[in-house]
Amino acid sequence: MSVNLPSFAKINLGLRIGALRGDGFHELRTVYQTIALHDTIRISVTRGSGIEIRSNDRRVPLDPTNTCYKIVARALDALRARARVRIEIEKRLPVQGGLGGASGNAVSALLGFERALGKALSRTDRLRIAAEVGSDLPLFLMGGTVLGVGHGEEVYPLPDLPATPCVMALPEIAVSTPKAFSDWDERCRAGSRPHIAAGRPGDRTATKLKNPAPSDTMTKFSREISAWLSAGSDLVGRRRSGVSAGRGGRAENPLLDLVRTGIENDFEKVVFPQHPELCEVKRVLEQSGAHYASLSGSGAAVYGLFDSREGAARAAKKLIGRGTPAVVTSTLTRRQYWQSF
Description:
The longest helix is centred in the first third of the chain and has 17 residues, at 101-117. The chain is globular. It has two domains: 2-158, Ribosomal Protein S5, domain 2, CATH 3.30.230.10; 166-339, GHMP kinase, C-terminal domain (Alpha-Beta Plaits), CATH 3.30.70.890. Strands 1, 2, 3, 4, 5 and 6 form a six-stranded mixed β-sheet that branches. It has helices at residues 67-79, 101-117, 123-133, 177-192, 214-230, 254-259, 268-274, 276-287, 309-321, 334-339, and strands spanning 2-20, 26-46, 50-55, 84-90, 145-149, 154-157, 165-169, 194-196, 206-208, 292-295, 302-305, 326-330. It is α+β, with helices and mostly antiparallel strands.
């Protein structure tokens, strides 16, 4: 039996990086948001054994390092099943873009495998297996707007939010996530080292640089999310006054209420200096009318949220005219996300 499923992307509405943990992961706080851009996954299950990966993108690994391979192998063991599984990955999303492409592929492969096999894991087992394979995977078992804590794998559904027009800028730049984390750690270490203040000879007054401590970023994120939820998230779906926007005016969309609390992506502080062209993309989106623009994950994708699809289309056209690939899409509510499967 064969099954075709979409594999949606995500963006990060704010991302705060905490301290490096004993297990080698960084403590993270983020709000994930699924969007309509997607790859397509085709799963075929027949008699026999083994897992075969195919893809139209030569950058996709076809061996056991592939996330789809890993999750289906674990599902076979958990279900005590024996079958030959072929996974075809039709890529439209960038392989390294900060959009969770490989993670979404894996979750769609898991859901397609269960459907083709005619057996299903429990929700608990799905989440456990997804978290074992990668930090971003569990969010795709929820969809919509999702709070991510731990190292991103611990997920909680947030109030569902209305779909919002979105421009995705997709520069052809590969950003290394491990390097971005390493650069962040170095930035934090530099911020904790005292330096000698300028002044009279012999003046040994020590001061500190202004980089925030990892614990401070966690606290700040908690305040940002609390501010949004206390602004009246029980009114999601209605038009209302919300948190004051940084550039004046009032948000009428609870998604914009969220981003206007001041949430930021900490990766911008280390990725933008390495790739200033990404900072320029964000600037163009903001100047084109985006209520909020940000790097997604560690990049290189940059997105902007707009009031209307027409405004988003104008911004995308401007980016394309400057040589940056861009597409117009929309955020997906949890209901829209699951209706597509």
